[in-house]
Amino acid sequence: MSQPTIESILEEKRLFAPSQEFAQQAHIKSQQEYQDLYETARANPEQFWANLAEQELDWFEKWDQVLDWNPPFAKWFVGGKLNISYNCLDRHLTSWRKNKAALIWEGEPGDSRTYTYAQLHREVCLMANVLKQLGVEKGDRVGIYLPMIPEAAIAMLACARIGAAHSAVFGGFSAEALKTRLVDAEAKLVITADGGFRKDKVVSLKPEVDKALADNGAPTVENVLVVQRSEEKVHMEPGRDHWWHDLKAGVSADCPPEPMDSEDLLFILYTSGTTGKPKGVVHTTGGYNLYTHVTLKWAFDLKDTDVYWCTADVGWITGHSYIVYGPLSNGATTVMYEGAPRPSNPGCIWDVIEKYGVTIFYTAPTAIRSFIKMGEHHPNARDLSSLRILGTVGEPINPEAWMWYHRIIGQEKCPIVDTWWQTETGGFMITPLPGATSTKPGSATLPFPGIMADVVDLDGNPVQPNEGGYLVVTYPWPGMMRTVYGDPVRFRRTYWEHIAPKDGQYFYFAGDGARKDEDGYFWIMGRVDDVINVAGHRLGTMEVESALVSHPAVAEAAVVGRQNEVKGEEVCAFVTLEKDYEGHEELSNELKQHVANEIGAIACPGEVRFTDALPKTRSGKIMRRLLRNLASGEEIAGDTSTLEDRSVLDKLRGGS
Ligand code: WT7
What we know:
The structure is a single chain. The chain is an alpha/beta fold. The chain contains 21 helices and 29 strands. The strands form 8 sheets. It has a 7-stranded mixed beta sheet, sandwiched between helices. A hairpin with a 2-residue loop joins strand 9 and strand 10. 5'-O-[(S)-butoxy(hydroxy)phosphoryl]adenosine binds next to helix 12, strand 23 and strand 24.
């Protein structure tokens, strides 16, 4: 079981059409309807998005201009005023949805809580007032470092309500990674918890915040708001650290939403790239609200009767767009789960589906592969008949995993929605619409209406059907990132210059390779840059290399990805040592731990190989291509004539 190869997917000819029964009740009911929508949007994208913005969102003031496109900088709904927390909460309180379950939370070990729209609104207003009391103002940035608890959604919405931007950091990241992000965003306050539950362990969070802030590590942070979750004993710094439950008791539950400009900063989310430190991806209010709302509504055919569950962590974009903002803006019931499948409870996912009658389930290929490993007797022993749509995201899904998902979980009746998108795109870009699109296992199928996606060569020319090329988007869309926080030059360089603009045509370069088949279906081939996709999480090879060389034993390090049965890819590190150090297993383990401390457990190399030298070109560039071959035990492919010292390869082949 592995990632798809060109050969395997070229052979993939299976086609699954939506059933008539499903199509009839769907928002978008046929391929013809999709094509008409796509054509309407293509002919006049501004009108298309403006109509939706009017129908789907509430605005305090209407915009003056739909799109201001000054490549590569876009502004959407210029002059419009709204508040995303209003669209996610307040507007549902005037209808029957007031007492509908907004957020169902299944916690560990055995906790659960349900918030109606009215209750969630109240909690958000309380936290918003606490933030204000702690000096947070419109335009400030707030770090969020929380486990998968309702307060994570509450914190995001509370920031949005008062016009402060959040910058969430995945709870699995280390103190060091947290610090870098807090510093870059110049966060004024951090919202965290004493700890969280991960699998069968309590993970520490507050102590990591303490470490990040120690020695004035993140000097802009004035206060820390701490949610009590795990009953871990934690240090509370007088004057700086405050318990949420204490402050909550002293504020009013009345907090009117701040009218925000459509282009006001909503959040920053850091993501890995090829070079340098992680990039702060900037999303703004109006376009992001509209885009997450409409994409979720159509791609998951979201209805008021649905119980929708996305298994991502709120610390990633999937959690932002499709656990919190997209579902709540639609007035849906969104499920949040703190647990994860583990040997002590391998069937927990299916228990949650059965318990709450989940109708839409959205997860990642890496999770599906781990479900396959645990065995189909777990899902088979539960009643999964409530399910009607299944989704996947994060990496290319191998057809075997797709078929298993379809047969075992979907009972051959649930359409599979394979959504290609990125932190940068804000929401789904290439995805089936389940009542309209026939699916092919392994293909994310067709672009969402309004998305001009293509596969081109380095000169920007479209390639022939079934020929590989670069995945690009050729027109702005409302959910697109606006810039790299504090670094517009990097934004332009990273995304808009890889394929040079020509004749006024700009190309958003996604970093993925892809091909389009004879039906125009997109097949994503994976990253074409030095980014590794470990269990659906993006890791820059440079970040891992910097972490390795910060260890005193390491002279040089080169990191590549190699296939892993469950995670898709794993990190394989090649390391040369300083003199006086010897490569042995103990040091290898120490280096793995060191990377986990510097970045987080997700970056931990699966293997560390010691070597006397790294293969380099005469100009000193590490030849990663060769290392990739070596890491996966393949023959060295392609030209090696530029290698400076050929004996290095022979030694490396010998292994260590
Ligand atoms: C990268 C973006 C967006 C949510 C999760 C990851 C890969 C994502 C798919 C898919 C093939 C996919 C791409 C992309 N990717 N979804 N359905 N099929 N590849 O967000 O961390 O920003 O990573 O994930 O390589 O560029 P992210």
